[in-house]
Design brief:
four-stranded antiparallel sheet, alpha+beta, 4 strands, 193 residues
Length: 193
């Protein structure tokens, strides 16, 4: 196998060198491992931006110690819990939203940054469509389709979203919740304590 030289920016070179030392590897071996993994992903049709987003999503899920389960299974569990104790379930989804929102504030300062981060993260969830648009003066319209297979699970997602939005001083001023569909108007209230 022929060797060749690759040029990288000095900060990347330094980062690679430090990582190679940390992993007790040669720079040659580490660089080959990274390039091989990248080429394999690209050859499988994965976009490099998608890989970066995937890593961010993985980090967030790891930080929350999240467990991923099939959506149909979750829908059936949520429907049963909703039937038994609706208030308990919805309050806990709202509280989860507040906790998630607090974490996301580490990664995003403004509603716009939250929406940008949301678009990246939502690629990894079974949502069909999410559209967010600014309709003027801190007012946003959010439409999400595929947010639950039952009205109960969709209502849980609504409470989760409400909790996240409130951490960013976004108040839901209009809402329509139906099976698998959320239509919201949210107002940014930056001076709200």
């Amino acid at each position: 196998m022929a060797r060749m030289s690759l040029a990288v920016e000095s900060t990347l070179g330094e980062g690679l060198s430090q990582l190679a030392k940390k992993r007790n590897m040669t720079l040659y071996a580490l660089t080959n491992e990274i390039i091989e993994a990248g080429l394999e992903a690209i050859n499988e049709g994965i976009d490099l931006d998608f890989l970066k987003d995937f890593w961010k999503t993985y980090r967030i899920l790891r930080d929350f110690d999240a467990i991923l389960l099939p959506s149909e299974f979750m829908d059936s569990i949520l429907s049963k819990l909703y039937e038994k104790d609706r208030e308990f379930l919805l309050i806990n989804f709202y509280r989860l939203g507040r906790d998630v929102g607090k974490y996301l504030k580490i990664l995003a300062d403004t509603p716009e940054q939250l929406f940008e981060l949301g678009h990246k993260l939502l690629k990894f969830y079974p949502l069909k469509t999410v559209n967010i648009r600014n309709i003027g003066s801190g007012l946003y319209e959010v439409t999400a389709f595929g947010v639950g297979g039952t009205i109960e699970s969709t209502q849980c997602v609504f409470e989760l979203a409400r909790g996240i939005f409130e951490e960013f001083k976004l108040k839901i001023v209009e809402s329509e919740v139906s099976k698998g569909l959320l239509r919201l108007k949210i107002q940014h209230e930056p001076n709200k304590a």
